[in-house]
Every structure is written in C-alpha cells, then in structure tokens.
Amino acid sequence: MSPVEFLLDPMRLGFMQRGLVAAVLVGIVCAVMGAFVVLRGLAFIGDAVSHAAFPGLVIAFLLGIPLYIGGAIAAVSTALAIGWVAQRGRLRFDTAVGVLFAGMFALGIVLFSTIDNYVADLFSYLLGNVLGITFADIVQVTVLGAIVLAVVFVLRKEFLYASFDPAGAAASGLPVEWLDYLLLGLIGVTIVVSIQTVGIVLVVAMLVTPAATGQLLVDRFWDLVRVAIAVAVVSALVGLYLSYYLNVASGASIVLIETLCFALALALSPKSGWVGRRRRAAVTNR
Amino acid sequence: MTLAAGVPETAAATEFAVRMRDVTVAYGDRVALDDVDLEIRAGALLAVIGPNGAGKSTLLKAIAGLIPSVAGTIEVLGAPPGEAARRVAYVPQAELVDWGFPVTVGDVVMMGRVPLIGIGRSPSRADRWAVRDALETVGMAGEDGRQIGTLSGGQRRRVFLARAMAARPDLYLLDEPVTGVDATTEEDLMRLLEAEAAAGRTVIASTHDLAAAAHHFHQVALINGRIVAIGPSDIVMNRELLRTTYGGHVVVLPEGEGTIIDDAHHHDDAPAGERHFHEGRS
Known about the structure:
Chain A is mainly α. Helix content of chain A is about 80%, strand content about 0%.
C-alpha cells in the first residue's frame, strides 16, 4: 500500500470523513477552553460536568427529545451550580463538586437501568463513538463550537485578566463574577458537544491534556492555546487513522495520542527539565 | 441626575478621594473592620499599618469594592465603591498571585489597560505606548518578554506598579507594595508613589514595615480591626499608639522607630479572616 493510499483509503468511507471533521472541530474547541480549565485548576470540574450530563441524556431519551438538549441542560446547570457553591459555599470546594457529580452520575445510572432494551445510543455517550457521527451532529458541533470560540475571542482580554488576577480585574471594573459564570457555562457547552466524540469518561482528557502540554512548552497564554490546538488536531488525525488500521476504539485512540504528546513534552521541554527545576527552586527560596 | 446627597462627580470637585462613615466589614460572622470612620484627601500618600489580621487588606478591598460592607457608607472618588472602578488601580499582595501563570511582563502591564480598551478590541498604539512608558518609569524597560515567574521579588512589585500606572488611575490601592523588596526597589517605588501623590493622585498602601511607613509616607493610619489613629506620620507613629495597635508585639527603640516582633506568624488567630496563600503550593 502506498503512503497516498494509506491516507486516502479510510477517507473513502463517509463515516470516517465525518468522524475526522468532528474530531478536529471538537479538539480545537476543547483545546481553547482547556487552556482556561488548566490555568484555573478546573480539571476536576470538567470531569464533574461531563459526568453530570449523563442523567440529562437519559432523561432526554426517556422523553424522546434530542439527547444533546438534555445533556446540555444538565451539564451547563451543573457547571453554574458549581460556580454558585464556589462563591458562597461553606464546604471545601472539591468536596462539594465530588458530592454533586457522583450524585448526578448515579441518578443517570439508575434512570438508565430502568430502560429495558440495550440502548446503543446512550452507550455511545458513555464511551464515545466518533464514527457514529451524523451530518446533523457535525452541523451542531460546528455551530455550538463557533459560538463558544466567538465568545472567547470577543472577551479574550477580559477572560485572561480575570483568570490571572481576579481581584485586580474586579477592582478595575471588570464584571469578574459574571465572567466566571460565563466561562463555566462555555466549558459546559464544550463538554456537551465533545461527549459524543470521546465519551463522558474521557472528555476531561480532551480539555486538559493539550493545554497541559502547551503549559510545559511555552510561556505565553495565547502561545499555549496555539500549542494546545496543534496537539488536539494532530491527535485527532493520528488517533483516527490508528483506530481505523488497528481496529481499536476511536475516542480512546485520540486521547492516547494526546497523552503521548504530553509525555514527549514532559520529557523534552526545557521548562520541566533542569531549567524548570531551577526556576521553581528560585521561587521557593525567594 | 441624582445628586441628592450633594455628591460631586469628579475627583477635582471633591476634596476627599475616600470617605468611610461607620463602616463595618465582616466575613460571615467574623468582623474584620468595626465601625471605621476615615477621610482621605485627594493627593494623600497614606500608609495603612497594623498587625497581621488587623484588616489592612480588608480595608483596601472594601475601598476597591471587592467586598461589601455590612454597615456604613463608603464613597470612593465621589461614588459608591466599584462605580468609579476605571479610575482605581488595585494591586494584590504578591502571595496572592500565581507566578507560574503563562503571562509575560508586557502582558501583565497591558492588563492595566484592559478596561480602557473595551470589550472585543485589540490594544491600540496608544495602549502599547502606555505600557512601554509605564515599564520605563518603573525601571523595567525592555523586559516585556519575560515570563513573570522568572522575575525577582522586587521586579515583580515593579511590574505590578507599572500595571497600575498604565491604567492612569486617580486612586492607587496597593497591598504590601514594598514588602520583601530590596532597599533600592523600595526607594524607587516610593519615589514614584510620591510623584503620583504630588500630581494630585491618591495613594493608599498597606505595609508591615513601620520604618518605611514613617520615612516615606506623608500620612499613616494605624488599624487593628478599627482605626486606632490617623494623621501625619511623625505625629501618629508614637510609642503609645503603636503599642495600642500592636498589643505587646512592638518593641519601641530609643530613636522612636518601631520594630514588629513575631508579626509574620499570626495567621491562625487572625481576627480579620484574611486568607493567606503561600507560594510553592503545587
């Protein structure tokens, strides 16, 4: 098989074309939002929100409405509820998140177990099924992803300032509390559009791993975002081809390639090598 | 226009940059500031001193509109706190900043311009000029590209003052701007703040350093959950008032300069509920 055939062969299949487009789109949106997730320490929240989407999906299935609407309502409202707990709660924040998301996921499982027949649709949300993506799904991912990216673009300076120094930003007149809720809402939307591609269990990796790779390699926020996007796109392509030729799960393959990129960055980056160690030592000894 | 209380609109029209009447601030049921009355004239160079947990940061945050008061009224540049936010620059304590965050010196100073630039827009030539000008003023010219975590403690305070200056504020609220910096940096930063005050802008800074407060600031407010004293530094900085403010924790030297003993370890019983985060948390 020639290299050209190697690359073109899978693309003769419609579901591979759609899967590739969806994986790349989802990867890009996740990479951008992931930069905020990583820098603000929201990885656990990302995991929580994706699990919390599950009861929404099941309820939507039971009611016979489009699944992603149920998932979106559950995910975004959980994200906002977490924000609310963070601002006024008396519990430790991660405790509150742990309680909330495990409870939501359990509700999803209980509802799921009331359904008599095997439901492939819902299973694909748990583990992801990028190759089952329809044209309508792609339209939906594109529209929602474009909205998320447009909002981030318009508020890029404000989100960065509020993430780096919330007090300074608020004192200078930025509506930081509102920006935080908006950011959580956008993360919720991102997770919902990603769930069908990689599944509830792995979506947090799509958010965290490319941005974490960027953080190891560069020193500026928007450079980090660029690296994260590159990692996400390359991983989507390589992961999908891998899953095609080795006949293994597609979403998990994409995440594995992202993890490989992270491991390479960890090993080779000047920041995590001796330079980084010296820098951290300098900070500690200050 | 509702000016029922006769509140003037601009700093030029008002004598006072900050007025607080019977202000109480609490975190839950812990009172951090109790019944504070304070009037700070425009153009003042005021040090806020007191032991840890005395409410220094709380006072600055209340003025900045970052925490609400549970009682009393606060007027900042002739408006309620937060209303004149674009004319206020607030600099947090160094230990509250994530120094590993991927931003450069230039990025941080440009943040001072963000509220002026407006949503959706990119920095203009004037904004970039203001950033360069501010960096030059604080002695950090040409360092724009460095990640902030690579800077020394003194350089970090210089950069954050540059961010404040780039916003061209009428009121500076600085939490510990000269804590942990070398003598040269302290001299440089205080000279800049003095110049800002001389130009009619108001500077309110908390500090642990009694010697710096006495030496550099025109006015001093001694606080310990309440205002113990406020006035010209040479009058306020006396043995009796310092002892009242610090309890047993001040040793008054023969020259009259106070030295704080054991000040850095009062986090646990801090009555003000100030939360401190230290670097090195991973």
